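Write out the bound-state structure for 6-O-phosphono-beta-D-tagatofuranose.
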Amino acid sequence: MLSRRAFCKNIRIDELDGIQIDHPKFRATLMLQGAQLIQFYNKSADQELLWLSPDAEFKMAQSIRGGIPICWPWFGNLDKNPAKIQQQMASTADDLTAINSSAQAHGFARSVEWRLKSIEEHCQRVVITLSLNSNDYPNMNWPFKCEVDATFVFSDDVSLELTTHNTDNNELAITQALHTYLPTENIQNTHVFGLENSTYIDALLNWREKKQTGAVRFNSETDRLYFANKTIRAVTPQATTLIDSAHSASCVVWNPWIDKSQRLSQFPDNGYLSMFCIETANVMHDMKTIAPGSKDSMTLRLHLA
Ligand code: TA6
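---
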């Protein structure tokens, strides 16, 4: 772990280690488990760009509710993924049934500890890379050798580049998402622009395909996989956040609303009023197939308008 640096210091919250960065432009908290950014505060704008559940727990092998969980090497429930993703995990139909029932939602990267690969501190920005490799998850019956890097560039804004390096001799298929939790002072006065006229799969309507008309608004449980790759503008009463992505042509929009809020772990019953998720992704047919020895990246940039 780090020795004391200009802006970065080691922290521990309950069972988990992390890095706290206090820079003239921003403050951020990055946990080693899951390479999970749980807080980013823009000092000049006096704005928190991420939402962290007030009931968040910091326990080994359990994803933290909030910030930007990294969903990898699959998104959501394995059995809702393309056949290629599922078949990588199992050679027979029986194995597949067994795997689908036991595989954790959103993959395992968010519940294992990543290693600190590098830190660069500059007067205008701080760059931190955490990495995960096959030796870090031996008991996840993930049959591939690969190295994953999560590179964060912090300044007035924050970018995250997730790079998968296939170091195996076989082709690797993944789905993935940066499951970004955003804050709002009023979910019913929150609008998401940039997805107009795009196609989406509605996970609450039997995964039926639909078309978005106008801005996305929230007045009930919302769980949609959009296929679009434009800048997304999330407008809340307190701020407008721009979400730019690269090498991603899909994005998940989610709010649990009342009933699901009561079933979710680490989530207050009224949590749905103060958060929503816009998840930069490669899901469904936007999955990535990586040849042996090749690399593939997906990038997210969060900034205030
Ligand atoms: O991204 C939306 C979603 O797949 C929802 O269906 C909901 O399950 C959410 O992710 C949170 O999942 P988690 O496993 O973090 O509770």
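---
Helices lie at 83-89, 93-102, 257-263.
The chain has a mean pLDDT of 95.
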